[in-house]
Amino acid sequence: MAQKPAVGCARPTGGVVGKPDATKEQQPQQSTTEVRKMIQVGKPAPDFVAPAYYKGEFTSVKLSDYLGKWVILCFYPGDFTFV
Amino acid sequence: MSVDSIFVHKMWDDNEISKMVKGGVPFHMLSDGGGKVGAAYSVYDEDAGVENRGRFIIDPEGIIRGYEVLTPPVGRYVAETVRQIQAFQLVRKSKGTEATPSGWKPGKMTLKPGPDLVGKVWKVWKPHQESD
Predict the structure, then answer these.
(1) Residue-wise pLDDT tens digits, A5-24
(2) Nearest to A51 by CA among B31, B10, B50, B8
(3) Chain B neighbors of A64, CB-CB under 8 A
(4) What's the rounded Cα separation, in Å, for the pair B14 and B5?
(5) Domains defined along chain B, listed by start
(6) DSSP category for residue A44
(7) Which of B2, B30, B42 is the best mutation test for A, with the most CBs of A within 10 A?
(8) Measured between alpha carbons, how far is residue B100 from residues B45, B89, B131 in Å?
(9) Is A55's CB within 8 Å of B24's CB?
């Protein structure tokens, strides 16, 4: 039977169910340490390009195009997530 | 930036945000499907498949000056972000000769770190000034 998901401030997601794939588990886990090291105050912000919606138009944004300006970069769990 | 598509961003802006903010969202709403950018900033939650509430202040040289990351149910305080940027801008303008004590806001005193100030902060700054 389908259950009603709790309505919270994180975007509801699903995933695979059942026993974990044994073959996958044996593979060495990729470390994300290298990536995480990049985030440190006083150190460069990782550059990126991302699709964007801006005042009725679809465009894209490259962080390094904003060199020379102060930038606030905000992440959030999802559109329509209340907070 | 979130993992939503730019099409969903448009719907959210059209149907909800524009009813709270005149003219809708005044800045770019970025899409990070797959969370790759969020992962590079350590805010992507792989288990949930979404990004936490991360906020980064990046200076004109592209250097991260500060960040704050919250789990989803608690919202940010925008005025504090603005205050921090004002403080970083002051420090930058002073070429690092001034520092902003706890609770600093524009107009309040700054500190000028140097040999004379070592061990003497108590003379020029009192804890009650934090919330004055």
Answers:
(1) 677 776 666 777 777 666 55
(2) B31
(3) 62
(4) 14
(5) 6-78 (3.40.30.10)
(6) B
(7) B30
(8) 34, 11, 14
(9) yes
Q: Could you give the count of Cα atoms lying within 13 Å of B81 in the half-sphere of its Cβ?
A: 17
**What is chain B's Cα-based Rg?**
19
Contact B129, B103 (CB under 8 A): yes
Look up residue B108 and give its two tokens: 């309040």
Q: What pTM did the predictor assign?
A: 0.85
Phi, psi of A58 (to 5 degrees): -95, 130
Does the structure show a pLDDT above 60 at A25?
no
The type of residue at B74 is V
A8, A77 in Cβ contact below 8 A? no
Rounded CA-CA distance A10/B48 in Å is: 8
> Which ranges constitute the DSSP H helices of chain B?
6-12, 18-20, 36-40, 78-93, 121-124
Chain A residues whose CB is inside 8 A of the B62 CB are 44-45, 47, 63-64, 67
Q: Is the pLDDT of residue A36 over 60?
A: no
Buried b (16+ CB within 10 A) or exposed e, B69-78: eeebeeeeee
Q: Looking up tokens 């991360």, which residue turns up?
A: B54
